[in-house]
Every structure is written in C-alpha cells, then in structure tokens.
Amino acid sequence: MSRTSSTAITLRPAGGGELDQVMRIMGEAFDPCFGEAWTRAQCAGILPMHGVAMTLAFSSETPVGFSLVRAVAGESELLLLAVSPEWRGRGVGTALVDGFIAHGRAVGAHHLHLEVRDGNSAVGLYRRAGFRIVGRRSKYYRGLDGQQFDALTMALES
C-alpha cells in the first residue's frame, strides 16, 4: 500500500458498540512502555458522561483511528487520539484533529486543549493545527517499567 495523504478518510460517531475496534487501534498505536493507553473499563466508563464524544476514522469500511473528546463549561478536551501505525502519515490524524476542533466549535467551546507525552510525534500534528504548548506536567505518564514521562499541555483558543 502506498503512503499518500490523499486517502479518503470518513469520520463517524462511535459508542460502546465500537469499543472492540477502538481497543484494537489503541493496542496497535500506543507503545505500552509510555503508559498512555486507557483500559477498556476507562473508555467504557467515560462514554456515558455528559459532553463525551467518540469518533472513529474509516478508510472505506476499515477503522483506522479514533478520538475521544469531552466538552463541558465552554471547554473541549481531546482525551485520546490514536491512528493505526500503518495508517500514519495519510491524513487520519489530521482528520481527527480537525473533527475535534469542529466539534468543539459546534458545542460552543472557546478553549480547546489536550495533553500529550513530550516526545510523541503527535506534537507536530497538534502544532500544525494551531495548538501551542501552555504547560508541562512532570512525570505524568508511567510506563510498564516504571519509567516516567512528562506531558505537555497544549491549547487552541478559538
């Protein structure tokens, strides 16, 4: 398969019925050594909460990425974003970030933010979308081996 950014990506709302697909993508996308992935119970537990929305990204009928967001009190937070490794560099992450921004604006959020591990290649994706680093959480992520990693807080004012 050639790597191209012109692949047609479709975003669709998702819920608890799609957790198997979400967990598969998360398992492929997040290296356990960084401690970034959520458990199935964490994902299932947050879905019914007010303001939470999950989106699956598809190429044809194949799920290739997802995002999980929460909007409340004029703010929208990107909780999780993952792209299957073989689909990176093809516009999936960009489509999901654009979807996050559009969702935030649609629900009236004036402040959009996220946290990402320092050193994660997604930092560049978020910068290209207009997010800027506004803070750092020291030793926020803990890998399986106990190693700790900082999180960057990034924000987009709309």
Could you walk me through the main structural features you see in this protein, from its secondary elements to its overall organization?
- 25% of the residues lie in helices and 39% in strands.
- The model is unreliable at 1-5 (pLDDT under 50).
- A 7-stranded mixed β-sheet has the order 1-2-3-4-5-7-6.
- The radius of gyration is 15 Å and the shape is globular.
- The protein is of the alpha+beta class and 158 residues long.
Please write out the topology.
Blueprint: E1 10-14, H1 19-29, H2 40-46, E2 52-59, E3 62-72, E4 75-83, H3 92-106, E5 111-117, H4 122-128, E6 132-142, E7 148-157
Parallel strand pairs: 4-5
Antiparallel strand pairs: 1-2, 2-3, 3-4, 5-7, 6-7
Describe this structure in a few short sentences.
Helix content is 25%, strand content 39%. It is α+β, with helices and mostly antiparallel strands and 158 residues long.
Considering the chains and any ligands shown, give keywords for the structure.
globular, alpha+beta, 7 strands, seven-stranded mixed β-sheet
Structural class by SSE content:
alpha+beta
Mass-distribution shape: globular
For the report, how would you describe the main beta sheet? 7 strands, mixed
Give the topology string: H per helix, E per strand: EHHEEEHEHEE
Determine the fraction of residues in helical runs and give it as a percent range. 25-40%
Strand order of the largest sheet: 1-2-3-4-5-7-6
The fraction of residues assigned to DSSP E strands is: 35-45%
Distance, first to last CA = 37 Å
